[in-house]
Design goal:
six-stranded parallel β-sheet, alpha/beta, 5 helices
């Protein structure tokens, strides 16, 4: 060793999916780029070529099944360092799922698909606040997926939960 610190390069946001699972509601059917299976074997040579050591696998479907699918991939894929999944913030009973998922070493956080929710003020509703509190209590991250029109509400949430670690996805598009 030359005495220099080794630097790990991490792709902080990538997706795998299998459209046959049936829960990628946003995906246009028949799209030549999107409507196909993406697996670790598709990404591995690209990571090697660009010197990327690890990735964070992020959900692309608003289902618990998607989160379980990704954790299975993480278990079988050494380069997946973490998983950002999904739970239903509109269902407080899903706190038990969040607690269970948080026990998995690869599970790092959640990403409600706020960009797809018709009510721009959804995240401010009293009935979803438990989810933000649980993210904080369990030491998880919150991935903020929205549009510029959501910025003021995200700021409100960040002020309400200042201890919450947040990742801004896709630069708010």
């Amino acid at each position: 060793c030359s005495g220099r610190a080794m630097t790990m390069r991490v792709d902080a946001h990538q997706h795998f999916w299998n459209p046959a699972r049936g829960d990628y509601f946003w995906m246009p059917r028949g799209d030549a780029v999107l409507d196909r299976v993406y697996r670790p074997a598709d990404l591995a040579p690209i990571l090697t070529r660009h010197g990327i050591d690890k990735t964070v696998l992020v959900q692309a479907a608003p289902t618990l099944a998607e989160t379980e699918y990704m954790l299975g991939i993480a278990d079988a894929t050494p380069f997946v360092a973490g998983v950002v999944g999904w739970v239903d913030f509109e269902n407080p009973a899903d706190r038990r799922h969040l607690a269970r998922l948080s026990a998995h070493p690869a599970f790092k956080g959640v990403r409600p698909m706020i960009q797809d929710i018709p009510d721009d003020d959804w995240m401010l509703r009293d009935d979803v606040q438990w989810g933000f509190r649980a993210v904080c209590d369990l030491g998880l991250t919150f991935d903020a997926l929205g549009f510029p029109r959501h910025l003021a509400n995200f700021l409100t949430i960040l002020r309400r939960f200042p201890e919450m670690r947040v990742v801004i996805d896709h630069c708010m598009k």
